[in-house]
Design brief:
This is Glycine N-acyltransferase-like protein. The protein is α/β, with parallel strands linked by helices and 377 residues long. It contains twelve helices and 24 strands. It has helices spanning 8-17, 25-35, 82-96, 109-118, 139-146, 163-171, 181-191, 230-240, 245-248, 258-266, 316-322, 335-343, and strands spanning 3-5, 42-49, 56-63, 69-74, 101-107, 123-124, 130-136, 156-159, 173-176, 179-180, 194-200, 202-204, 206-212, 215-221, 226-229, 251-253, 256-257, 271-276, 278-289, 292-298, 303-315, 327-331, 348-349, 359-367. The radius of gyration is 19 Å and the shape is globular.
């Protein structure tokens, strides 16, 4: 039987049950933010299997402004049998059939593969699959990052992202953006840590936004501001702790509603921005409601100046202050950032019990209509 965690006492128990595993950190942070009502624009339903001692977990996050997200993860990667995974998935299926569409974020190839195989008669999995490696900053590196003073290239400054102003830019750079993501990113900026970099002229150059599940959700440096160290410094500064229109407009998954969802993220979660001295937003990083770095972006004219790296570090500082491990998922197709993260002195790749990198499968899933009648399981 799939166990549902709904009351304050049940959510507190779920928080304890998901502690101590790097594979469950996005689930753990989703529960944390639901328990403490930290992100009302991203209400979560929490499920675990087996009932008495859950090893497999699902979070259905119903975003206020955009399509739902479904997170699945397990306490271990290679120690679960296929029959255990199948039982969990078949018990989760009725809850998923309530959704006409959702963004699936499945941690672990075995889990995502079985989901695709078992649910193929119920859901359309033909949308592109974005595989990503999982990175975090461990505790010893966190202590070093919190003590750093992060310097930007001349002409840039760190800024707090404004959910009402920067959400469009954040959502527009996110390749998954859809209807409502602007507002959902605004909520992330309000609720979670984020970071932005602007030029002295006021132009947004780079940013990183955190997801409600705790990972770095959208990191972006506009092309003209690249190669200036902005991304690393933005990432670091956010690891220690951006304007919603700009943030939403840069997200490759943006759709209707993403501007408002990003605005909510900027209001609720730590974020960071870098502006020029003239006030232009140059770079930003926004945190997702689940705690990961959600949208990191540096505008093209500000690239090659180190903004993205510095923005990421500054957000790391804010994320640590917020009580989270800095987390991010880097897509395999994003070869430059994947290589930069792999050689980073701060980020560590999360690996399975055999020492292989853990992969997240992120894709848009549609329910087939009408849904077939469910077999008894």
């Amino acid at each position: 039987m799939l166990r549902s965690f709904e009351t304050v006492s049940e959510l507190s128990e779920a928080l304890n049950l998901t502690d101590g595993s790097p594979y469950l950190l996005p689930i753990h942070y989703s529960i944390r933010h639901e328990l403490h009502e930290m992100f009302p624009e991203a209400k979560c339903s929490i499920y675990g299997y087996p009932y008495d001692s859950p090893q497999l977990w699902m979070v259905i996050r119903r975003n206020q402004f955009t399509r739902p997200h479904v997170f699945m993860a397990s306490r271990t990667q290679l120690l679960l049998s296929e029959s255990e995974i199948d039982a969990f998935l078949m018990l989760a299926l009725p809850y998923l059939l309530e959704l006409s569409e959702f963004n699936a974020r499945i941690l672990g190839i075995q889990l995502s593969t079985r989901m695709n195989e078992l649910f193929s008669s119920h859901f359309d999995f033909s949308a592109p699959s974005y595989l990503a490696n999982y990175f975090l900053v461990n505790e010893s590196k966190q202590r070093l990052i919190t003590k750093m003073h992060i310097q930007l290239a001349d002409g840039y400054e760190f800024v707090e992202l404004d959910p009402d102003v920067d959400s469009d830019a954040v959502a527009s750079t996110w390749k998954f953006s859809s209807a409502g993501d602007r507002d959902q990113f605004a909520a992330k900026i309000r609720r979670m840590p984020s970071i932005g970099i602007r030029t002295y002229g006021g132009e947004l150059a780079s940013f990183t936004v955190l997801d409600a599940s705790g990972f770095f959700n959208n990191q972006f440096t506009f092309p003209e501001h690249r190669q200036r160290g902005l991304a690393d410094r933005s990432e670091l500064r956010l690891c220690q702790k951006v304007d919603s229109d700009a943030v939403a407009s840069t997200w490759k998954f943006s759709s209707a509603g993403d501007r408002d969802q990003f605005a909510a993220k900027i209001r609720r979660m730590p974020s960071i921005g870098i502006r020029t001295y003239g006030g232009e937003l140059a770079s930003f990083t926004v945190l997702d409601a689940s705690g990961f770095f959600n949208n990191q972006f540096t505008f093209p004219e500000h690239r090659q100046r180190g903004l993205a790296d510095r923005s990421e570090l500054r957000l790391c500082q804010k994320v640590i202050e917020f009580g989270l491990y800095p987390l991010k998922f880097v897509e395999h197709e994003n070869t430059a950032v994947l290589a930069r993260s792999a050689r980073s002195p701060w980020w560590s790749a999360v690996v399975d019990e055999a020492g292989m990198p853990v992969t997240q499968d992120h894709r848009l899933v549609y329910r087939l209509a009408p849904p077939p009648e469910l077999a008894t399981y």
